């Protein structure tokens, strides 16, 4: 059974901003880890960062595509 949550627009916008910040941070970290292959520690972190970026992308996409019919 799917639960429905009512989120006020102000709270939604705050969560949307957090999701955007998380996504942007993971993009920068992913690029840094991918471009600094000479550091083994960063190279080992690359798969973890890629998974985090994928998940952050999904959350960010949810907020971008969420219907405009949220409660005021």
Helix content: over 70%
Please report the number of helical segments.
2
What general outline do the C-alpha atoms trace? elongated
Radius of gyration computed on alpha carbons: 16 Å
Low-confidence stretches: none
Query: How much of the sequence is in beta strands?
Result: under 5%
> How are helices and strands ordered from N to C?
HH
Mean pLDDT: 80
Please describe the structure with a list of short key phrases separated by commas or semicolons.
2 helices, 72 residues, mainly alpha
What features would you describe in this structure?
The protein is mainly alpha-helical and 72 residues long. It is built from two helices and no strands. It has helices at residues 9-35, 40-65. Helix 1 (9-35) packs antiparallel against helix 2. The longest helix is centred in the first third of the chain and has 27 residues, at 9-35. It is elongated. The mean pLDDT is 80.
Reconstruct the topology from this structure:
Layout: H1 9-35, H2 40-65
Helix pairs in contact: 1-2
Summarize, please.
With 72 residues, the protein is an all-alpha fold. It has helices at residues 9-35, 40-65.
């Amino acid at each position: 059974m799917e639960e429905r949550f009512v989120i006020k627009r102000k709270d939604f916008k705050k969560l949307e901003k957090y999701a955007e910040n998380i996504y942007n941070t993971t993009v920068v970290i992913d690029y840094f880890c991918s471009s600094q292959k000479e550091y083994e520690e960063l190279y080992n972190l690359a798969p973890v960062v890629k998974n985090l970026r994928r998940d952050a992308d999904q959350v960010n996409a949810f907020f971008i595509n969420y219907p405009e019919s949220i409660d005021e």
